[in-house]
Amino acid sequence: MNRSRRTVLRAGSVALLAAGAGCVSSLREDSAEPDESNGGGDDPGGDDRDNEPVVEMAPNGWPSFQGSPGNTGNAGSTAAPTTEPTERWRATLPGAVTDQVAVVDGTVCVSTDAGTVHALEADSGDERWSTTVDGGRSQCPCVVDGRVVVGTESGSLVALDLESGDEVWTADLSGPAMGPTAADGTVYVGTREEPAVHAVDAASGDVSWTFEPEPAFDVVNYPAVTDDHVFVGTEAVIEARLHALDRSKGTEAWTREVTRAGPPTVSGSLVMIPSTTVRIYRHDRFPRGGFSGRGSNAASPAVSSDAYFAGSTGGRFSAYKRDDVGVHWGIDLEHPVASAPAITDDAVYVALETGLLCAMSRESGETLWTRSLEGEDASGPAVAEGAVFVGTDAGRLVAFE
């Protein structure tokens, strides 16, 4: 199973970090008290929260995990079904699809746990090309500058030509490669066993810099990237950390201890990471407060300009107000939330552990529709090209419109 989703699902919730200071209200609907264990008393900066948070939208389709370098899960005004959908197409692949797909320029890129990478037509599901990558595994590919980039268990980062599937370059890394993220022509990827974070030139495959955490701390999937920093989680057996790295040279700006770690999310002043409690800090690592919901918030959230959206292992899914961390709305989905949600201006899409795909109103949380994936475990949704794309552990990839 996918480490970014399944391992954290059993042990995590979402920790939130923020550039803004200020107080945090308790949750009104999730019946949880705010976590003030690292509370705002350490914060010397006052309430300098940004009033108009920057939310990074998927720039061109859904080119990587959660659609953007910041892992925000926000497809903006992209058209997607808000009423009972039809199945645009269904493809059967040779291995499980346990993570999101990437969608760029009418092409769906997907990797499976059989080590295969496929490019499919977004409109029809017809296969354009497929190839086998030595040590490949199911993860969300990263598409950058006409290259489809995937990490492998054999310790390499492989770039394939988007048009043909031909190998463009291979970068040998320090250990098994986790899911990559790209921004401005550079791919950022972590490794485990011999843990490190690497910045790799997308054109050549040359490594620009390497950061090495403590040896016991494996790097998790999908770093989050801003103009100045790369945020990445690391995990040891019973502890974890969030690191802020200088994007230009890979030096560590700061680190914070968390209980578990998953892919971070960055949007404006907020930094979020799946962990076992939900805490809010400033980018300069001073705490802003925190909260926890029913069960644990196991997967990365999605973020809009006024809210963030997260589900829990207890089957609760909530929209939290961005200004005070109160609950805007919350609903019971009755099944554990298995993956990171995707949002548009109108809807929230989330996969449940029991193989259901659920669409909700972004404004109210009202259920718009649900579709069963035949009892199969579902990957996280990707929203692009007028459709919602979701894979299953039985090797199916389905497009709903």
From TrEMBL:
Specify the domain of life of the species encoding this protein.
Answer: Archaea
Name a Pfam family for this protein: PQQ_2
Gene3D superfamilies membership: YVTN repeat-like/Quinoprotein amine dehydrogenase
InterPro entries assigned to the protein according to its UniProt record, in alphabetical order: PQQ_b-propeller_rpt, PQQ_rpt_dom, Quinoprotein_ADH-like_sf, TAT_signal, WD40/YVTN_repeat-like_dom_sf
Q: Where is the composition biased (Polar residues)?
A: 63-84
Q: Where is this region: Disordered?
A: 25-86
Q: Where is the Pyrrolo-quinoline quinone repeat domain positioned along the sequence?
A: 86-191, 197-275, 299-400
| Protein name according to UniProt | PQQ-like beta-propeller repeat protein
Q: Give the originating organism.
A: Haloterrigena alkaliphila
